[in-house]
Amino acid sequence: MEIKAEEKLKEKILNTLDPILLTKPFICRGKDMLFKNYLLEEVFPYIDLISETVSLKEGYVLSLKEFLEQSVFYTCQNRYKGDFIDFAQDVLISFDDKKYKEKKKKEGKRFGENDEISRFSENAKKYPFFENVEGPIYYIVIDRGEVSFYYKDSKFDLVMHTDNDIKEFLWKIKELDFDLFKKLYEINPVFKDRIDKFKEDKEFYEEILKGLRTMSSFDLAIENTIEAITGIINQVESDPFCSGKVKTVKKDFDLDSIPKFDTDTCLKTVISKCTSYYSEFFSDIDQVFMDNNINEKADYIIDEILFKTIDKLSYNYVSGIANSVNNDLELDINETFLNDELDSIMDSLKVNLKKLFIYPYRNKEADSSESYISIICEAIENQILFYEQLVNSTIERMLVAYGYVLRGSEDAQKTTEFKPTL
Asked: What pLDDT shows up at residue 102?
């Protein structure tokens, strides 16, 4: 009886609100949902539904209707990213978040323990998998040869500890971003080794590896190069006129063997976030894109600005490597040749991305474009760092094929030193 009465009260309150407003999208901690659903799930369980007024700390008393339609829809959504609890704690005179804490405590048991994240070193690499705009985020952190998994939202950092938690986590991130998961598996041996630890669980291991074992084009190119060089060496060694001496293999470092930066994924990320942004205001997204040349502008930003910058930095770096190889010189692998310029690249990208997000109203208070731009930049930054690793891992394999050996180095954080064999 009590439950039915509460449901009727919720319905009564909803009937007093603007029906058009209830059908508008609302961003709650990065998750898009209808404002009506947001009220039912995130607001009504934590406020006094019986009272027809709401008292604010600033001294104002609002009707419940005004509070929900104005303060919650606009202020809570834009200043607090839809986090009603933070908003309510700041603005309401009387607010008890006990129910919310109990709810989050239960949710916190989805993965592992509710722990604080261990302190990682400055060189730790983070790979985020986004469930929604602004979170929650599923992180893979690779630091000092170890892999850590954790889930993060506005309230919790949940670390994965048990095998079952990690398995569930791996399923989730593979579903969220298969391309990123696949790249990480292909180019990062630490992550690959962590997955390989589940080999004994054959059913899980075979399923999680589905779609990951296809050899990429650059892997095929490297393998072909190694086979060709091995063939030459074998031929020379078997030459009866060689007198037991192996002739020097001619080195010609092939710049075309270095993979290109993945602009397609970056462009898809930009278009996806632009679509989410404009869906807040318009129903005909295709028309909005056409009127504002969004596709053309996005293409230009990714190809003419981002790609050309990264391509130039990569070409200069790889050309230096090629010169050393072709002249039998010692060389250094710079693990941060893109990371060193990352701030400059991202600053330029942010400036240009703002041209894609055109707020349709004069009042800019409700403009959520900065949130979308931040998510785009974080995703593209991740792509850049992935590409940096990809280039260097390709170069290292080519160096091995050319007979280079690793030279001891006291400072192995930024460079890996190689020298040619005699």
From this structure: 58
